[in-house]
Amino acid sequence: MRRKRLILIAPTTSYRLHDFLRAAESLGVDTLILSNRCRTLSRLWPQQNLLSVPYSRPAEAVAKVADYCQDRPVDAVIPADDNTTVLAAMLAQQFGLPGNSPDSMRFCRNKYLFRHNLAQSGLPAPDFFQVPLRENPESLARRVRFPCVLKPLHLSGSRGVVRADSPAEFVEAFTRLRRLLQSREFVQKKEPESGFILIEEYIPGREVAIEGLLSEGRLDILTIFDKPDPLEGPFFEETIYLTPTRETTAVQANISATLEHACRVLGLRHGPVHAEARLNDRGVVLLEVAPRTIGGLCSRIFEFSSGISLEVLVQRHALGEKVATGDLIRSPAGVMMIPVPGTGILTSIEGVDQARRVPGVVEVSITAEVMNMLVALPEGASYPGFIFARGATVGEVETSLRQAFAALHLEISPTLSVAGEYTTACG
Ligand SMILES: Nc1ncnc2c1ncn2[C@@H]1O[C@H](COP(=O)(O)OP(=O)(O)O)[C@@H](O)[C@H]1O
Ligand SMILES: [Mg+2]
């Protein structure tokens, strides 16, 4: 029997590549990695299973992959990150594989389209509207009801998401977000989404994250995470995720029904979903639904809790196998995304060994490199690292994570910001 082949779409900056490749190896599956790696450099490093494609021109990328795969059958396509989901759907269509339509992926990728598509669903939702960057913030501030949240349409990890409680805060947030979206990074990418800001009513309430798996439109909840830190703004740095959730069975059922309903409306039918929601007296208010697995290194929680790898599960599902979705969390577990302490050059990281010795801690993974730039929210895009813990109760897990974090010390050397772009003070 021939070995199965899986396409993994992972950008050069992906946290997920290692865990997905390890999973494919354990399943005895061949992988073809589609990266947005610079084409010039790619020619210097020819590698059997790596193809560089232009993510920003998906039709061209699909043609290149189809050509490359003429004599190489493809059995599944997996997007590792948010900005690869539309390309994954187009490739699944090209190879006649089960998956979501490219349109449904676009609805999830663009926060305005997401809200717009759910607006008629009857599900609880905030008021929202989008405005072009050229709009005058002072006059907008007169139309807006407070508190509100401003956000870019297509970024992730809370990047650019800012709460405003007054006209003055609104003008400041709008100007700051406009500066970010007009910075070199976004001008170079030329994505139309960078030309707009979404303005939403602020949704109060507790926040949860949901990991699910859709099979032909039916949703299985893999787990619900509680986020115990208050996320009240003005910026929304993700920190701790704990599982299993402490929400009641009735609330969990409502979360599941709401998410399944939203997936139906959005046209999502098959594969992993990662969603976030706030819980309040209006019910379950979805913040976003992403057709991919949980980001960063967070999926390791599953392996620490039950020995079951989320990447293995998702790959087997994508290859058409029937997978058991129960029992993924056996002991309470959690992760802390280490907050960025400030904007500047990371000059040293201390206390990692002490953090690792905290009872309950199973891994402290520092992903930032010393002498690299760290950028705090709302402009920043990545975390310096992740702490994982498990314990007899979620309360114990939370304590372990907080103790480990307290043992860490990240030293930052300040930088100068010139016209919204960051430059190092030390040259
Ligand atoms: N309308 C809102 N009301 C309250 N909090 C919000 C709202 N929108 C976003 N947030 C907060 O900001 C975080 C990031 O927003 P989200 O839309 O999920 O963007 P991202 O794709 O960057 O994660 C959310 O997890 C939530 O804590
Ligand atoms: Mg989010």
Annotation keywords:
Rossmann fold, Dna Ligase, domain 1, four-stranded parallel beta sheet, binds magnesium ion, binds adenosine-5'-diphosphate, alpha+beta, D-amino Acid Aminotransferase, Chain A, domain 1, 28% strand, four-stranded antiparallel beta sheet, 427 residues, disordered C terminus
Task: Write up what this structure looks like.
It contains 14 helices and 20 strands. With 427 residues, the protein is an alpha+beta fold. Among the domains are: 5-99, Rossmann fold, CATH 3.40.50; 127-201, Dna Ligase, domain 1; 331-427, 2-Layer Sandwich (D-amino Acid Aminotransferase, Chain A, domain 1). The model is unreliable at 423-427 (pLDDT under 50). Bound molecules: adenosine-5'-diphosphate (ADP) and magnesium ion (MG). The site of adenosine-5'-diphosphate (ADP) has 19 residues, from strand 6 and strand 13. Adenosine-5'-diphosphate binds next to strand 6 and strand 13.
Brief sketch in words of this structure:
The protein has 427 residues and is an alpha+beta fold. The protein has helices at residues 17-27, 39-44, 58-68, 85-94, 102-109, 111-118, 137-143, 167-181, 184-189, 249-266, 300-306, 310-318, 352-357, 394-407, and strands spanning 5-9, 30-35, 50-52, 76-79, 128-132, 148-152, 162-164, 196-201, 206-215, 218-226, 240-243, 271-280, 283-290, 333-337, 344-350, 361-366, 373-374, 385-390, 409-418, 421-424.
